[in-house]
Write a sequence for this structure.
């Protein structure tokens, strides 16, 4: 397999290779969906993508199953794999579950008082700030990667296993809606302040304060996503 899918870490100067071929393919497909390259309702050209990525169909099928679990694609009779349509129900359900579960990881992260965790989150926060200052699009792959790594560092602090796995899936589902609602400079600036406050609360070893800041952050992201859907003609109730 080609290493073209390796991620460049701008802060360390190192290349981050994907863990497995399936993970590499899943991330490539996921990014295309979350960033809107593959639009809702569009057929996913799985065989063309396999050829372009230089992989066999086996890891591609495994990657598609992974994206089905994240509610990013569906398999339809006579159509094959298509990008899941946007849905107010999916949006509300995904955020409601994330709001219930992510604070668990937030409390554990703050209780650990781990300076390495805080430093890693701060590094990705600085990366997002740098991209913003350089006027890199809010819906770029670089911005998506930095935002994902910021939150996934928090998830890892919650411990390996069921919690981390479900948080990652839910976050990817929710991020599709967040990215769809951008660009929104006011929301991006507010999110940056919320991210910075999360890091500050974790450094201070404040579990409940960290969880509350996170709940506010998720509520604001949900509200922004709902406004986007309403503007597209969805009945948000």
């Amino acid at each position: 397999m080609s290493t073209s899918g390796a991620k460049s870490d701008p802060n360390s100067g190192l290349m981050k290779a994907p863990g497995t071929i399936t993970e590499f393919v899943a991330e490539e497909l996921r990014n295309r969906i979350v960033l809107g390259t593959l639009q809702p309702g569009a057929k996913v050209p799985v065989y063309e993508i396999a050829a372009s990525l230089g992989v066999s169909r086996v890891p591609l099928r495994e990657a598609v199953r992974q994206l089905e679990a994240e509610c990013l694609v569906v398999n339809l009779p006579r159509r094959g794999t298509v990008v899941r349509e946007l849905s107010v129900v999916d949006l509300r359900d995904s955020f409601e579950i994330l709001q219930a579960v992510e604070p668990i990881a937030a409390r554990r992260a703050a209780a650990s008082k781990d300076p390495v965790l805080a430093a890693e989150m701060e590094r990705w926060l600085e990366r997002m700030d740098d991209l913003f200052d350089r006027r890199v699009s809010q819906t770029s792959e670089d911005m998506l990667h930095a935002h994902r790594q910021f939150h996934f560092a928090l998830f890892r602090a919650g411990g390996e296993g069921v919690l981390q796995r479900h948080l990652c899936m839910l976050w990817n589902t929710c991020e599709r809606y967040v990215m769809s609602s951008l660009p929104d400079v006011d929301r991006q600036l507010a999110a940056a302040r919320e991210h910075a406050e999360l890091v500050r609360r974790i450094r201070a070893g404040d579990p409940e304060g960290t969880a509350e800041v996170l709940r506010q952050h998720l509520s604001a992201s949900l509200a922004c996503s709902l406004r986007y859907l309403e503007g597209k003609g969805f009945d948000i109730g």
